[in-house]
Amino acid sequence: MKNREFAAFVAPSMLALVVFTIIPLVVAFGLSFESYDYWTLDARVFVGFRNYVDILTDSRFWDAFRFTLLIMAAVTPTEIFMGSVVALLLDQISKRVRGIFVALALTTYVSVPVVASYMFRGLFYTGGLGNWLFALLTGQNLFLDETSVKIILIIYQLWRDTPFVILVVFAGLQSLPDELLDQAAIDGANRLVQLRYVAIPHLAPLLVLVAMTILGALYNIFDPIFVITGMNPSYHADSIMAYNWRTATQFGQLGKANAMALLITIGSILLRFPFLYSTWRSQVEER
Amino acid sequence: MRPIRNRFAKLLIYLGLAVYVVSTAMPFVWTLLQSLKTVRDANSAVPLFIFEPTLESYAKLWLLETPENLSLILFGILVASLTVFFLAIFLSRHGAPQFIVVGVVVGGFALILWTIPQLMKMADWYDFFTNTVIITTCAVTISISLSATAGYAIARKRGVSGAILLVVALGLGSLPPMAFAMPYYQLSAMLQIQDSFILVIAVMVGLQQPFSIWMLRGFFMEIPRDIDESAMIDGASRLRAFWSVVMPISWPGVVAVAILNVLGVYHNFLIIRVLTILRWTLAVGITKYVGSIYAATDTVPFAAAVSASLPLLILVFFFQDQLVKGLGAGAVKG
Fold first, then answer.
1. What is the ipTM metric for this complex?
2. Does domain B130-333 have CATH number 1.10.3720.10?
3. What average pLDDT does chain B have?
4. How many Cβ pairs closer than 8 A exist between chain A and B?
């Protein structure tokens, strides 16, 4: 492709990118050095690095950061494990019945996160199925407090995102050549050995990608926290994105919130770095 | 893996899948059941599974007042939608140009959506619904047109220039939503375009670009270069070769990306919520029904949850294969 053609083809898309992602970033960068009121969009004062210092010494920011890391650490491996197990089970059953399971997984995957959070929250209203089951199993009533809200959040996340792992791993299993497994079986490998030494190595690159996708999404987790905690500060269940929202819309500190968004961005880029690097390699080398 | 023959193991497999189905489906089933109950049934101390279903909560959600001839109007809407649908199929079977078919579908459904509030008084939820339709349709159409050309160019361009664009785009695509939301809030106030469709659509297009470019590049890389190059030797321009030769064989991939785009726009909550005052989409609109106005005990939020999910379920029903393909490709190609 000639350079001129290339420029003409990418220009519209790049224009959209520059206008809608780069300009806002520049604005955010500028605002992050100011003290600025959210409601009136007034009272702008240049404060230098004070916003950044404020954030790094703000214990609630670090609480939110720790909670976000906790969610990432708790949810990612569990989801990958559960999703892979269900995908392996799906692989075992006949094609005719499989459709139902795939459709259910897809239903969960396409559900709107905010709406799905409401559905999950609905289980724990009075007269809700979740409340009733909890009382039935433990003999106690379920009260929403700091701990139970956090557990509900984690279970919600497992429920909402495991189907994604199932769908992707199942697709990966379909591309696993049966001949390899048969050879292993002839060599006397039982199923567990086949799984350990043939299937898992085959799926490994896929699982790494899935893990990175999930980690990236969890890092920005917001919708379920907004819905399930109702942004009630007494639960101390803010993620960094939720605390960022709170700083902007409840404390009205737009400058500080912008600075926080930029600090969060650094982590976001670091998380995506392996993916960016592999994309770079494939684009430069393949041709 | 080869299927297991052992009977006992088979039983365990189905048992495991049953646990998965029950636990995954439970919130959906429960929401559907709650939405069909009267307020009293919904709040009974022991969860009710057998009750007399009512559509009261849906009427409360969609309508300001229930007209006497409601069933007649609903029947009319159904007939009109089917007419548009079959007219489009009829036209495309008989070789009408594509833009006429698309025009009939878009125009027909727009007319239906416009007529409904003339016939009966609709509640806010209907506005959220039409807003979602308008924003999603426009944003996805524009986003796909832009990213398809860019993705094609990057797939066909050797060397570093394409790689730089791609990596910068993907880097920008991974930024947290708040990093966009606040500057947009500020800019829209400065430019006096708060709460306009144009702003929301433009922002959605920008946000969908990186991922769409990357996925479409993957699909276009699978199409051999010889195909477009031979068309160009025959005298076609690059644009002509792209549009008339490459695109017709790339539709499955493009549709898959378009569906993921629809999900991206439809799911968006934070940015649309910050950018809009009244022009809420369904995902934002549902927050209205929980909290101060409606008690936690009402059934309207459940009806809202079901109503907001239905359009996507219809989408899955029609495009299940493309969706699975898109998901797989998105994760596999890396």
1. 0.89
2. yes
3. 87
4. 320
